[in-house]
């Protein structure tokens, strides 16, 4: 077994859980190299197209259609396509819960423990700009990383909060028809990927997390609308954090039922509770994970939330209207809100008393009103398609100006590229990276400094 110090107590529990023969296979899996995965952003590109344009050597993840393995020596985070939000780096087993939660455009989705956004990015992609995704994490610093990932991904119909589930419940009631609870857990399934997990495991083991999980799922069930689906997932093996939590939900809520998850090659059924799904590193090409899907059969129908889209048209400042006229996709003016000079495009729905929550973002940040002008945001650039903006320039990935632009430098155009005046969307192979301001053959860099290429 590789040099990972794991307590005898944990190993003995795993032996009990798996039986002697399987336990040997599990222990052997520590000698294998960890696996590296990435998931393609279907909001921006199809997996088939991505495979054609990327220089990374990829192998498909058998059970996730937009998931791939890449090789350990590659550096996919140092790639302009990463900066264009074309993919997210994610361990393959961790792709499964969002993949198996059947989110469709128009759904009202809550990702309750969402940071740094591995699963929220996929849920947002499935919504295709319709409905709403509320992504929450109790940790403010982690919620900031979550926001960056969602903005890089190009999702416009988001709200990002940093709240206790109890408070979200009082604002939203039973509003959501899809909920993901990717619960904080003891992380037993990640020991091979991240040896530091062993240290934190020794501080807080399964019983500590089971108590937190019980509280979180209780609130999550209350936020689920009748007919709604809730996915519960962890990256740990202990029964008390997995099947026991699901059993508790079923015992305490007559209106909840387990929806059987389909098994795929290498996946295992729940332990003592059939219909759940377990992933073990000795059985699949991925780390350890657990998930269970639940449905709310009945319950109180939630009150209708405000629908900004149906409110009255509103007059916008001239500078803003002028800029927005460069965007060809339709924006509904009643959903545009200006708060402290920041301009937001709000999602379709919103809770009446939503203002009382700790929001990091309500909708897509379009930009900022400055003295007699409007400055578009990085998030807006990432949410657009190249053909949706009036003035654009696309460089080939190999063009050295791509990295220069990402580093915040001024970029110059060649004679054949012509001249650009005013706001221009800079793209790599047709995928937006950010804005620049053209003055003839010079493009003044407006890439967000906090996101620059290091
Ligand atoms: C397993 S991680 C989530 C990973 C994330 N879903 C992803 O795919 O990137 C669990 C998260 O739960 C958050 N958390 C812990 N206690 C929480 C609580 N009571 N309510 C909401 N989030 C909580 C942690 O800050 C942590 O970011």
TrEMBL record:
GO MF, one example: methyltransferase activity
Residues bound to S-adenosyl-L-methionine: 113-119, 137, 182
Alphabetical list of CDD domains matching this protein: AdoMet_MTases, RsmF_methylt_CTD1
Domain SAM-dependent MTase RsmB/NOP-type residues, every copy: 1-297
InterPro entries for the chain: Methyltr_RsmF_N, MeTrfase_RsmB-F_NOP2_cat, MeTrfase_RsmB-F_NOP2_dom, Nol1_Nop2_Fmu_2, RCMT, RsmF_methylt_CI, SAM-dependent_MTases_sf
Catalytic center residues: 235 (nucleophile)
Swiss-Prot/TrEMBL GO biological process terms: methylation
Classification via SUPFAM superfamilies: S-adenosyl-L-methionine-dependent methyltransferases (SSF53335)
Keywords associated with the record: Cytoplasm, Methyltransferase, RNA-binding, S-adenosyl-L-methionine, Transferase
Record family assignment: Belongs to the class I-like SAM-binding methyltransferase superfamily. RsmB/NOP family.
Protein name per Swiss-Prot or TrEMBL: Methylase
UniProt organism field: Lacrimispora amygdalina
């Amino acid at each position: 077994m590789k040099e990972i110090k794991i307590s005898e107590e944990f190993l003995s529990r795993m032996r009990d859980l798996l039986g002697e023969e399987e336990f040997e296979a599990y222990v052997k899996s520590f000698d294998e190299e960890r696996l590296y995965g990435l998931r393609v952003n279907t909001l921006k590109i199809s997996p088939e197209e991505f495979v054609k344009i990327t220089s990374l050597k990829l192998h498909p993840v058998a059970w996730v259609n937009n998931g791939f393995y890449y090789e350990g020596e590659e550096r996919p985070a140092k790639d302009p396509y990463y900066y264009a939000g074309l993919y997210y780096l994610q361990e393959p087993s961790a792709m499964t819960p969002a993949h198996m939660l059947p989110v469709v455009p128009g759904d009202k989705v809550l990702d309750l423990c969402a940071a740094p956004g591995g699963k929220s990015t996929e849920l947002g992609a499935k919504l295709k700009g319709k409905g709403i995704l509320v992504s929450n994490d109790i940790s403010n610093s982690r919620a900031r990383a979550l926001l960056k990932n969602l903005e890089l991904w190009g999702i416009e119909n988001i709200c990002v909060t940093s709240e206790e589930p109890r408070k979200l419940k009082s604002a939203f009631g039973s509003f959501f028809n899809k909920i993901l609870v990717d619960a904080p857990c003891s992380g037993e399934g990640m020991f091979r990927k991240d040896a530091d997990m062993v240290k934190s495991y020794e501080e807080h083991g399964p019983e500590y997390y089971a108590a937190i999980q019980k509280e979180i799922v209780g609130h999550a069930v209350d936020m689920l609308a009748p007919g709604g689906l809730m996915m519960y997932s962890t990256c740990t093996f202990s029964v008390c954090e997995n099947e026991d939590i699901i059993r508790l939900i079923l015992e305490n809520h007559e209106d909840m039922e387990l929806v059987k998850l389909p098994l795929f090659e290498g996946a295992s059924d729940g332990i003592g509770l059939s219909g759940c799904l377990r992933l073990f590193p000795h059985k699949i090409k991925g780390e350890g994970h657990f998930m269970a899907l639940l449905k709310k059969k009945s319950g109180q129908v939630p009150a209708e939330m405000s629908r900004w889209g149906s409110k009255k048209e509103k007059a916008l400042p001239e500078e803003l209207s002028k800029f927005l006229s460069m965007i060809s996709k339709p924006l509904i003016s009643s959903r545009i809100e200006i708060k402290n000079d920041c301009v937001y495009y709000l999602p379709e729905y919103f809770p009446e008393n939503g203002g009382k929550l700790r929001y990091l973002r309500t909708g897509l940040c379009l930009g900022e009103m400055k003295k007699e002008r409007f400055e578009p945001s990085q998030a807006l650039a990432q949410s657009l398609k190249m053909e949706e903006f009036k003035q654009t320039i696309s460089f080939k990935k190999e063009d050295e100006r791509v990295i220069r632009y990402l580093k915040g430098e001024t970029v110059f155009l060649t004679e054949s590229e012509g001249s650009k005046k005013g706001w221009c969307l800079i793209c790599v192979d047709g995928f937006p990276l950010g804005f620049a301001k053209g003055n003839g053959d010079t493009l003044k860099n407006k890439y967000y400094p906090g996101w620059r290429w290091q």
